[in-house]
Amino acid sequence: MRALSLAVVLAATGAAAAPSNKTCLVCHTAPLFEAEAFSKSVHAGLQCADCHKGYDFSVHHAKAPKVEPKTAAQLRKLSGKSGAPDALIACGGCHESQQQDLLQSAHGRWLDEDRPAAGPTCTGCHGSAHAIPKSAAATALERQTTIAARCAGCHEDAEFTRRARLAPHESFSDTIHGRLLRLGNPRAPVCASCHGSHDVAPMASPASMVVGGNKTKTCAECHKGATAGFAETFTHVPPNKITRKTPYYTAMFFSWMTSLVLTGLVVHLSFDASSELRLRWRRRKGNLPHEPAAAKGFVQRFDLHQLIQHWMMMFATFTLLLSGWPLRAASIHTSSSLAALMGGAKGASLVHRAAGILFAVAALYHLAYLTVCLIRRQKIHWMIPTPKDIRDVIQNVGFFLGLRKERPRFEHFMYIEKFEYLALFWGTIIIFTTGLVRWFPAWFAQWMSPRVIELCQVAHSYEAMLAALVLLVWHLYNVHLKASIFPMSWVWIDGKIDLEALKEEHRAEYDRLAAQGKLPRDEP
Amino acid sequence: MWRNRKIAVTGAAVGFVLFLVFGLLPALLYGGYAGLLLATGIFGAPVEASLLTRGLVMFGMALGVFGTAALFVVTGAAAGTALAAVVAQWYGERAAAPKQA
pTM value? Predict the structure, then answer.
């Protein structure tokens, strides 16, 4: 009502000598006023004087209209943010309900109260009134991205949040919603989706859309069946020791584990690579003791079932990595391109889930295979570590350092393969269970503690990162890229290992098969 | 015989060149991001630009480059092997066809 009264007063004052747009544009040209942008804007049909009221062209000074003291105080505050404060008030002439909501919201308090910092104005969020695009001119994604960027202009500005005494270090762009938006999902919620727009209430107010029961209702608009426990798991506050202990300590555990494990693997790999090169050099110089060559031929190392399990696991893991990492690292510019290859953020998420199901099927196939082998009493080369594996580690490191002349004699599966298998076993359980929780968070939140949901949300991506790095660095080096095998082992294709490679890498098994008469013996 | 080391090496070389063209920059970026995640998990956010943090980021970048290069090289070797097998099969069929006639 107050805004309407002001609008009427200003209209009455200006009606007597309102200039036409042509008149104004004689002087008001670029960069002060961009006529082309205005002609395409949503306000293109308006006259300058519809908003910039009170100007008399003959005098060319705005006649300050008589206003109420409260409105005058608002104009004084607005004049600190705009050269045309009365134009901002005039927004209410057409957008009365929005202005009313704004004045009563958290964003409008600064106009009526003494606040530590000036708040937003209409143009601060919507952009210059001369250039607000028509809604049809922008896509849904562009509109959502613009909203998020405008809110971030204040709420992710450390200096402003400190001055205005807003919650510090809160970042929308690092949350799952922010990352989905970065990947180009037009349905990703932005600030206004959850907090409201013109009527955004302070967090301390019971009217806020993100407090208490209201937050559950807000979450349930997209996440059907959301409970209070589910709503509790989502916040902009980064993990910390005080208010978000579970994700904080989960991230710390996985970060330490990843760093230490990968450091150990890289050290092992470096020693292995240098000893391989040293061996090749000695072989070339003829400094190695004479070893009779193995006979020509192959041994079946993996059967068809094992090969299929490996192919399924390999394809699923590769697809999971390609479809999941862009979402985690959405701030990297190539992520949106990668996601676009899969049909955008939505397509990437479908691909990721399909690959997750394939991954689980491969794991179940493997468990079924082991069970059938046990029932049929077929020979299984177990992956359980034995005391020999510990001796092998010590002796192998001694060989790397030149303290031993010969490598340890490895059996069918050496400690490296056992480590990879057990890491995959543990990783499969962690990634699959946490992935299910991330897929159906609202359902799990109905009977699971919010702390467990938060733990799963953090553990999934950290475990995926560890698994990916171990596979790409450790597994690919040991199986394919060692100097003695480079560029690729063919065992994963047809399951056969040639006798020379068997003798080189699994000498204990080679000797055992030879003693059993299943291989040609070494020539004297 | 499709197990041909020369063809696999050629495929690996092609894979490495493709890595240099398409994969090097993303590998550095994603690896560095992984290092930053590790630093955030260990030291808490916001991380400071300390020696250890920088070390973790560099470690992540190195692992990212090595891992991505490994993937490209092995995929190239596998693709080369597959192509060689297909070509060998095709030529083998063509060589056998006139004999059958």
Answer: 0.85
